[in-house]
Amino acid sequence: MSIVCVAGLGNPGSLYEETRHNVGFLLIDAFLKDLAGQWQQNLKLKALIATVLVESNKIQLIKPQAFMNLSGQVIQNLIQYYKMPSNEMVVICDDINIPLGNVKVSIGGSGGGHNGLENIISHCGDNFIRFRVGIGQKEHPEMDLKDHVLGKFTENEKTVLTSRFPQYIKDLKYLIVNGPVQAMNLINQKKQES
Length: 194
Known about the structure:
By secondary structure, this protein is α/β, with parallel strands linked by helices.
């Protein structure tokens, strides 16, 4: 199986920049910059799109420009437009159940309460690959989950996260070149400092 598409999830607009929920946007931007690519806006498909090469693999990078909980419709339209099978798509998203600084690759399963994933599953099925970036649990148990995920990273959290980005980019390249099974074996076993 070859990877043909990587989508980063987030909410568009300056209000949501650098919020925990937008880590998919932050990482796909960093990934595109590393590959010296540029976003092209497609108003009809409601997405920023870039075509890049990872080794000899031609990949579509996608940044949906609809709110997180509507990103499934955008992604469904894109995979139909490009005639891409959903099981050859990687979705980068935040995960509160993974410690900050860690990542996990998985295939299939539920959305685990993540609105973006739930919406993609409802439109495209659940057999796509997830690249889940840990944002950690909420600070206080009584805190509203929405406030946690839509809150901005603290300076300390930002430092931890940005220090990990070069490794995440390597991990994404490894996933694209070697496929999800090998990537899960390598990335999910890593001892990652949080």
